[in-house]
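Supplementary notes for students who missed Thursday's class. We covered one full example, reproduced here. Read the sequence, then the structure, then the short commentary at the end.
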Amino acid sequence: MRSFIYTFERKEKKYRINTAQKERLLQLFKDIVYEDNYGKSTICSLYLDTPDFRLIRSSIDAKVYKEKLRLRSYGAASDLDNIFFEIKKKYKGTVYKRRVHISLDDALLYIESGQKPIDSQIMREIDYAMNFYRYPKPKMMIMYERQAFFSKCEPDLRITFDTGIRYRADYLSMSDITSGTKLLPQNELIMEIKTAGAMPLWISHILDSEKIYPSSFSKYGTAYRQMLLSTHTHLYKGEFNNVSNF
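Structure (token representation):
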């Protein structure tokens, strides 16, 4: 049975790399890390937001504090499957994540009605945020394949590689985890390094030697920008076509 963690407090750094760099890093890491027992998994995140996308717009503009609300599943999820309802905050570079494990049906019912499915400290924290934003609704689905590794020496160190990152904002069912618009070129991916404190020197030295540097990248933020760009492009083409028809 898979063991889940419900609260996180850690530093996270993201790196936008290509597949060749990933393979090179895995060779350099091979005696230092081991793969997650569950191997690769498909992660599906359904982000909640207001009608005017207040949460992601605030996150994009913020310098110190960011906050997101989402449902997350590992693989496809139907109504009766358990998923995570999460609140994720980032303050001065430290990420705080709190989540509860409930059925997708209960989560969606709560989003519509405001009736808490369980009474717990974490659920009350989520409910406070939901109430503050006036019960945001599902707005964006983000999916990708994740390969995770742990350090043999530092138990709090985790390295993940996210490939095939895709999104959709029209059909938001968590039972479909395949279709979506790609966020990155075919040979690019996101590596994340998560630590409880400072980055270990050995990994800093490897990254420096390979000229791999941190990159600011938000999956939801990038998808939101891409969605806006696509919408504006369609509107422009429509206006152009209308003019050309006269």
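Commentary. Residues 219-244 form the longest helix (26 residues). Residues 239-246 have pLDDT under 50 and may be disordered. If anything here is unclear, bring it to office hours.
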